[in-house]
Automatic annotation (TrEMBL):
Coiled coil: none annotated. Residues 2-165 form the Thioredoxin domain. It comes from the Bacteria. This is Redoxin domain-containing protein. Pfam families: AhpC-TSA.
Amino acid sequence: MLLPRQKTPDLKLPTLDHGEFDLTTDTSDRGTVICFYRGLHCPICATYLTEFQKRVADFAERGVATIAISSDGEERTRQMAEKIGADTLRFGYDLPLAKAREWGLYISTSRGKTSIGIEEPALFSEPGLFMVTPQQTLYYGSVQTMPFVRPHFSELVGALDFAIKNDYPARGEYTGAV
């Protein structure tokens, strides 16, 4: 389990049209929102990433970078980016499943073709949403075991406004006896 205020795993991946993404050198004033998604086969992911694409400018105004990442290869990732009309959202691809596990993501096995007729990969990670500080510590994290019921980007933007205004720290950091 990742812990707030503690260093996250490193993350280095190729992106579509933006060179290599390297979390250790990704610079932004307030950090990076990382959205791990299941892949092209997931229609819920397409809807979710469409909303993320709409919020990229909102995050940027607050000094926060954004990236969407899956274990799909370049071709399937480009298809997803085109499907949602991405013009500002960065897409990372080829996420190793061992790295997904380091981030606490759940791994699923294929059930064949999805409701939209696209074959699921043999193995893929389930969704996760993280905000990582410029010091590469965890500020916010949410992981799912299924594609349903994900955090809303509009709420995360609102939470950022509150956190910035009130210098609100990452919570959930306590690891002592209970």
